[in-house]
Specification:
Blueprint: E1 11-19, E2 25-33, E3 39-49, H1 53-70, E4 76-80, H2 83-97
Parallel strand pairs: 1-4
Antiparallel strand pairs: 1-2, 2-3
Helix pairs in contact: 1-2
Length: 100
Amino acid sequence: MGWKMLILGVVKINVDVAFVYGSGFSQTGMVARDSNGIVLYSTVSSGEVMFSPLHAELMAILNGLILAKSQGFDVIVVESDCLVAIQEFKFRILLAFGSL
């Protein structure tokens, strides 16, 4: 599939989570790129205990959005391999704001 160029001014955040059943232990990786594909920042966190893989994915997305906003980015695209987490965020945004 590969990386696709974004519209100028858009920042894309990719998140991925590893989750260990039984312990709830999770690790999160995140990378943010500008419209040219240049890495703006990347983070890795480990040792966080989550209730489920979905919980870990939702927290990774939320943390990615918070970090992007704190860096001054206003137009943000989030990519995750967890479709349920993306759909949940879209649903919550629609409930809260009425549009995406």
